[in-house]
Amino acid sequence: MQKPSFQPYYVKALSSEQAQLPTWFPSGHSEEFQLILRKLFERGFRLMRKLNIQKGNLSNISKNFVLSNPQIHVVMLRRALDGSVIYLARVGSQVQGPSGFMHGGATAALLDDCVSSAVLLSGPFAMTVQLNVQYRKPVPLNSVVVVEGYIDQTNGRKTIAGGKMYHPDGALYAEATLLFVKPRLVEPKM
Ligand SMILES: CCCCCCCCCCCC(=O)SCCNC(=O)CCNC(=O)[C@H](O)C(C)(C)COP(=O)(O)OP(=O)(O)OC[C@H]1O[C@@H](n2cnc3c(N)ncnc32)[C@H](O)[C@@H]1OP(=O)(O)O
């Protein structure tokens, strides 16, 4: 199933009414960042809280490479309608690959993490076994990116999923297709 790209509903959201942000909305972000978050709320995304309660086997996420990384500040949102997940992320200066731009491995990790969140929050524990990233534009350091993760289809223990990384104006930085497999035996702790 082909998911609609992020851009059309992002652009459409710009014309709709302002959503009311919760009082616990993290402060200190740019106006641009707050505008995107507001628009996402209007599209039905909700900030995830109390993750360890919702998914007991994910209670260790504070050690997650991406979510605990001081160079990658993430606000996670999820849409109940289809389980897709949005990461609003600010990438710092020390995730450099090419001079002035984000390392491709960091881009891949961010995509993998966002899509993994969509998969893990939608079903049983599964691990990435394939990650195919298409890099479309270099991502500047010290910038805000919007990452979308969604499930395409699940067939038995296998889930095919996808992710996209955008500039806040909707320009595509990178896109990925992923294959997840639910382990046959033990469920590793994340
Ligand atoms: C929410 C809060 C935030 C939470 C945020 C948290 C985000 C965390 C994100 C972390 C994401 C990661 O980095 S995960 C870490 C990187 N990934 C890994 O380390 C996974 C390493 N791989 C494995 O351990 C293993 O392959 C398993 C356990 C996944 C599967 O082994 P298994 O259980 O023995 O299954 P097995 O029989 O081999 O395979 C089952 C089926 O899948 C197919 N299959 C298996 N591997 C592959 C493959 N690479 N490519 C194609 N197909 C494959 C097999 O052919 C088979 O198909 P058929 O014969 O049935 O048709």
Automatic annotation (TrEMBL):
It is an enzyme of class 3 (hydrolase). Keywords: Apoptosis, Cell membrane, Cell projection, Cytoplasm, Fatty acid metabolism, Hydrolase, Lipid metabolism, Membrane, Mitochondrion, Mitochondrion inner membrane, Transit peptide. Its EC number is 3.1.2.2. The keyword Membrane applies. It catalyses: (5Z,8Z,11Z,14Z)-eicosatetraenoyl-CoA + H2O = (5Z,8Z,11Z,14Z)-eicosatetraenoate + CoA + H(+); (9Z)-octadecenoyl-CoA + H2O = (9Z)-octadecenoate + CoA + H(+); dodecanoyl-CoA + H2O = dodecanoate + CoA + H(+); decanoyl-CoA + H2O = decanoate + CoA + H(+). Coiled coil: none annotated. Residues 100-172 form the Thioesterase domain. It is a peripheral membrane protein. CDD domains: PaaI_thioesterase. It is found in: Cell projection, Ruffle membrane; Cytoplasm; Mitochondrion inner membrane; Mitochondrion intermembrane space. The keyword Lipid metabolism applies. GO terms for biological process: fatty acid metabolic process. Its main location: membrane. InterPro entries: HotDog_dom_sf, THEM4/THEM5_acyl-CoA_thioest, Thioestr_dom. Pfam families: 4HBT (PF03061). Transmembrane segments: none annotated. Belongs to the THEM4/THEM5 thioesterase family. This is Acyl-coenzyme A thioesterase THEM4.
